[in-house]
Amino acid sequence: MSESDNQPILERLRPKRSRRLGLSGKLLLLTIPLVMIAEVLIYVPAIANFWSNRLNDRLAAANTAALVLDAAPSGMVPDSLARQILTSINARGVAIKMGQQRRLLASADLPASIDHDYDMRDMTAWSSIVNSLKMMTETGDHTMRVIGPSPGRAQFIEVVTDEKPLRRAMYRFSRNLLGMSLLLAVLTAALVYLALHFLFVRPMRRLTASLVGFHENPESVARIIVPSQRSDEIGVAERELADMQRDLVSMLHQKSRLAALGLAVSKINHDLRNLLASSQLLSDQLASVPDPRVQRFAPKLMRSLERAIAFCQSTLSYGKVQEPAPDRRMVAVEPVVAEVRETAGLSPDASITWIAAIERGLKIDADPDQLFRVLLNLVRNAAQAMESLSGSAGVRQIRIIGRREGAVAILEVSDTGPGVPAKVREHLFEAFRGAGRPGGSGLGLAIAAELVRAHDGDIQLVEGTLGATFRIVIPDRPVELQTFWNERASA
Q: Where is the Histidine kinase domain positioned along the sequence (predicted)?
């Protein structure tokens, strides 16, 4: 094993993550802009509110100054005092309107024209946002007139002031808010990143590492992920991944054992086939013996040997998952059932009662050898299932029923045995997994199911019956009309 194979899986993943942006980087790049967008959405109304508050503060200071100026005797205020009052409120002039008369309470260096007018009496939130942003984007020494309500007898009060001091204050506020926003954005992004990293990114890396490690050695039990105790979707994903990996490991181990078994059977098949061929030569010589009993049993012996040789030959095909295609023709069912009984050793004096209820003249469009194998496997399974019953356990009986329903032939093989255990039914027709008795392999049902499906038929366990009942359904092949006329003409 090389040195790279001994490195942990996460270490081997690091070069890949360094060449491209991983989940952590994408999460960080996504978190910071989202937080900044939220800060921008906070900043816009904040600067508008700051602008409105400053203008309202100017109006409040102007109202106070108006009270002082209006209280002067005969409304006469020295110019020096008026300038001091205007300087204290950062204004160039203060005026009020009483009735139909506008009265200038104080002024100092009034400009020739006013650049902007802001009436705070009907100022909306949207207007505040637009006017505040507009003021921040302007340059130069502009003046503005701010109009607002007056608490006294006056209808409103006007303040003429410069925009530059307010613009500078807004810049300072923006810098402070921007700095605080950046700090909050970094802290929020860091907290969100760490929370999501530990809650989602690390578990995803763990899942990824488990998948990569399992892909490298899918037969190793040590590569199966150990699920955490989380109850959320990640916990469910971990548990499902662990179950899937365990199933795959079990399946791969089973496939390996099957491959080893297939190799062993292939080695045995050659010698066994030669031995059976020698036995077939001896049976040919027995056929020439004039003894009536020999003449009676010799054909059956030869037929059994021929079928055994054919079974040995098909063993290699089954190991390659290639059953030969069925040689279908209309086959009489009764002779096949009788041969199955003799081959299974169920003589009339046996402890198991044999009942064959076959519809008179019933024929099935099937391969006779493969049909024989299907029935023999089912009958042997039934006989072996009833061998475990005690002598007083009840009637031991195997029943074969055959009938035709239109273009479909139906056969049922039932017994009075203990039935099929519930835990076996899920994998009933799977090799080495559908064995319902100790020592069984489940190959008989697997072979029977494969042969029936090769005929486009179906085999299933009938529920709710005494013992076990298997139903075989084989449809007739569709016949093309031209083929039918050609066969009829040749006949």
A: 267-478
